[in-house]
């Protein structure tokens, strides 16, 4: 998903991209029709048919020159699965190919084109497809022209090269430390064990690496020791997540069956605690309340209207400037996000909303987004400011802010420093995760004002100016996947 913006830019740059899609699709469809029976698919087994199709195509992709890990990562992507609403549009094996497989193949090839542009691997796949008559000469000419443009601009070439290699760097780091990560399941101290696994798992989930890791021990632990993790901890923050939430999140994403009634009872008691402990829970216990609301989402529990009212009510004194200036940027955004999650954003008192928005604006500098007014760059703050502007449909306000340099350099620095042990730095892992989430927003929010960030930082000036001066940037709609981001939860929409 962190390449989606690149695909959009390349699709826009290359005039012959449509011819490319046609020739590539025809090549693979011919291979399919020569080797397997092209017939109707059965609605009740459509995903099994899809698996059979991918199993046939995987060796073909390897023969062309793709690495096994590249092919496997694509074929295990959750967006590949057929949803019930899509069943009616898929009637045959070729329909399956067009709707699910073809976009994946286009993406794989576009990634190789990116590699070729910055002098990494990629030429083998392009040349093999060219020999097979599945890569138009016209597009190859355009690619070479763009490559020449990059070769004349070393700064952009290195920027794109660093960007392209980010995903591999992160995945390699996790795969190389597989045993160390799995060993965290056996830490004795519940808090350290669950918090670390929660923070680390978020990146595993982001890149769909679940199949690589064995989480059997934590699955057993969550089921059999619910009394140990179903509790709260002091000093909760976005980098120090509440213990019970870590358990709920992991159980939800790993498909672990837990005693829901017991969890619901615990959640109900938490409401009473927040009501008694805080005068204004949303302002005084922001992170606690955030995990509380998110837990309700995962457990599919609805809060009562009177409960919501008591949790979000807050006197004007809590919105005074001298108070808000001491809040982290992420916390300011999370306050507004909670209101939005509870469908109350448009009901916030105007002065209160403006006070928070004004404080957020003070954290946005020309070349970075800071956690405090006079603080340092923060990946967490950057993500939440990006998300806030997306949530309120004001991404154009950030168009001229330089973001990618800090985001990318922070990932490389933190990945190099990261170790997986009971002493793992929560901040390091969180910063990598929020950097990835920022890249997701910059790629999956398909608006010209957003794609400008990628074009400015990663492509030669000629390309950037062309996109900038385009009155209406037209995004591809069918030739590769177009993942989106939920503007309320921030979750990826596949």
Order of helices and strands: HHHHHHHHHHHHHHHHHHHHHHHHHEE
Shape: globular
SS element count, helices? 25
Q: What is the helical fraction, as a range of percent?
A: 55-70%
Number of strands: 2
Low-pLDDT segments, ≥5 res: none
Calculate the mean pLDDT score and round it: 93
How many whole angstroms does the radius of gyration measure? 24 Å
What's the story with the biggest beta sheet? 2 strands, antiparallel
Structural class: mainly alpha
- Strand proportion: under 5%
Our measurement of the CA-to-CA distance between the termini, rounded to an integer number of angstroms, reads 10 Å
Q: Which strands sit side by side, in order, in the main sheet? A: 1-2
Short description:
This protein is an all-alpha fold and 494 residues long. The protein has 25 helices and two strands.
Please characterize this protein's 3D structure.
The chain is mostly helical and 494 residues long. Among the domains are: 17-135, no CATH class; 154-178 and 363-494, no CATH class. It is 64% helix and 1% strand. The chain has helices at residues 4-13, 17-35, 46-64, 68-75, 93-117, 123-131, 137-151, 154-176, 178-183, 190-206, 216-224, 226-229, 243-254, 260-277, 281-284, 286-299, 305-312, 321-324, 329-341, 350-361, 379-391, 404-417, 426-444, 448-458, 461-468, and strands at 484-485, 492-493. A two-stranded antiparallel sheet has the order 1-2. Strand 1 (484-485) and strand 2 form a beta hairpin. The protein is globular, with a radius of gyration of 24 Å. It starts with a helix and ends with a strand. The model has no long low-confidence stretch (mean pLDDT 93).
């Amino acid at each position: 998903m962190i390449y989606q913006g690149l695909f959009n830019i390349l699709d826009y740059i290359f005039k012959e991209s449509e011819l490319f899609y046609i020739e590539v699709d025809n090549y693979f469809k011919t291979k399919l029709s020569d080797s397997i029976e092209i017939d109707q698919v059965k609605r009740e087994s459509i995903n099994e048919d899809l698996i059979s199709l991918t199993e046939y195509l995987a060796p073909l992709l390897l023969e062309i020159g793709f690495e096994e890990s590249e092919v496997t990562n694509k074929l295990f992507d959750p967006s590949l699965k057929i949803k019930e609403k899509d069943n009616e549009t898929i009637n045959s094996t070729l329909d399956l190919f067009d709707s699910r497989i073809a976009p994946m193949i286009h993406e794989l090839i576009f990634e190789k084109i990116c590699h070729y542009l910055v002098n990494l691997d990629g030429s083998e796949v392009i040349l093999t497809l060219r020999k097979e008559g599945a890569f138009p000469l016209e597009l190859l000419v355009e690619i070479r022209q763009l490559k020449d443009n990059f070769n004349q601009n070393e700064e952009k070439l290195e920027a794109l090269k660093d960007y392209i290699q980010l995903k591999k760097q992160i995945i390699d780091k996790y795969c190389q430390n597989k045993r160390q990560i799995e060993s965290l399941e056996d830490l004795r101290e519940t808090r350290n064990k669950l918090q670390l696994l929660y923070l680390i798992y978020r990146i595993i989930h982001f890149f769909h690496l679940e199949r690589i890791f064995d989480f059997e021990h934590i699955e057993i632990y969550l089921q059999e020791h619910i009394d140990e993790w179903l509790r709260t901890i002091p000093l909760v923050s976005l980098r120090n997540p509440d213990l019970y939430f870590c358990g709920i999140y992991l159980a939800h994403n790993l498909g672990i069956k837990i005693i829901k009634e017991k969890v619901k009872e615990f959640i109900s008691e938490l409401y009473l605690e927040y009501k008694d402990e805080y005068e204004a829970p949303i302002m005084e216990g922001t992170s606690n309340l955030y995990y509380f609301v998110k837990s309700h989402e995962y457990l599919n529990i609805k809060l009562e209207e009177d409960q919501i009212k008591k949790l979000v009510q807050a006197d004007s004194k809590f919105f005074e400037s001298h108070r808000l200036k001491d809040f982290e940027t992420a916390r300011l955004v999370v306050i507004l996000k909670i209101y939005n999650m509870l469908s109350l954003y448009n009901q916030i008192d105007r002065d209160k909303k403006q006070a928070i928005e004004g404080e957020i604006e003070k954290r946005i500098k020309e070349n970075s987004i800071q956690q405090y007014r006079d603080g340092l760059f923060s990946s967490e703050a950057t993500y939440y400011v990006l998300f806030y502007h997306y949530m309120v449909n004001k991404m154009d306000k950030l168009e001229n802010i330089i973001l990618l340099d800090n985001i990318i350099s922070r990932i490389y620095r933190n990945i190099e420093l990261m170790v997986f042990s009971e002493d793992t730095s929560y901040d390091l892992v969180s910063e990598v995760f929020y950097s990835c989430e920022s890249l997701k927003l910059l790629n999956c929010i398909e608006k010209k004002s957003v794609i400008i960030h990628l074009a400015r930082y990663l492509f030669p000036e000629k390309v950037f100016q062309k996109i900038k001066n385009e009155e209406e940037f037209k995004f591809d709609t069918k030739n590769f996947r177009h993942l989106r981001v939920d503007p309320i939860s921030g979750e990826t929409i596949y």
